[in-house]
Amino acid sequence: MPDSQPTRPAVFIEKIFPVTLLNKQVYYEHGGNPFKGLHRWYSRKPLSFSRASVLGSLLPDTVTMEEFEYLLGLQRRIPPAPLSKGGAEGGGIGWQDTTTKLYKTPPSPERIKQVHDLCEQTWGTRTPTVLDAFAGGGSIPFEAVRYGLNVLASDLNPVAVVTMKAAMEYPLKFGPDLQHEIDKWVKWVGDEAEKRLAEFFPSQEGETVQNYFFGRIRWCARVVSQWCR
Question: Interhelix angle for 19-29 vs 47-58, to 10°?
Fold first, then answer.
């Protein structure tokens, strides 16, 4: 039987992937990813790995590792440390960017243009569609949007859908006006919280309450209940 599978160009991720480099980027990202602040998502994919996965799945396998790292957004490059007396390399293999943190570094317009050029050569369109049907916290769609790609994302969990709309769809749709509305309602919530909690957090003259701590007591109540039996 003739092969009925559609043919497509070979892509970068099928040839090689900078796992060691990306592991270091994830180390930077751990705990500092601002995207996590929108909503806690326990299985959220790191933005640096998500960006590399998107580009690796779209760019042709003719792209070199150096070109791929540049298109990711890496900047300064240094040679590895010299070999030790025992023959082991002191600073790892290859060239490394030790300053750029991808998760908080959007791609430059120049890099975006180069990615679009390569996509046009490979797929016949400058902005191919990235589909993530199980997008969860939205890391993969978020990085695809950063490169100006066409994105379709969804999830069975409605919380995930709302989170993605707030992080990607609404900012693109409403622009800077959305930030003004967000600032207005953040201030309203803060003022209301301060007013309603004032009796529970009294302060002396000249003092200002800066933070409120919230803790769950279900586990403590269960322990007390078991202890009293």
Answer: 150
Instruction: Pick left, alpha or beta for residue 136 (phi over 0 → left; psi -120 to 50 → alpha; otherwise beta).
Output: left
For 158-192, what is each residue's pLDDT tens digit? 988 988 888 888 888 898 888 899 899 999 998 99
| CA-to-CA dists, residue 74 to 32, 42, 192, angstroms | 18, 27, 44
What's phi and psi for 101, nearest 5 deg? -110, 105
Residues paired with residue 153 on neighbouring β-strands, in sequence order: 132
Q: What is the pTM of this model?
A: 0.70
Q: Encode pLDDT of 106-122 as tens digits.
A: 999 999 999 999 999 99
Whole-angstrom CA distances from 181 to 63, 72, 121, 192 are 43, 32, 41, 17
Angle among Cα 114, 49, 16 to the nearest 5 degrees reads 70
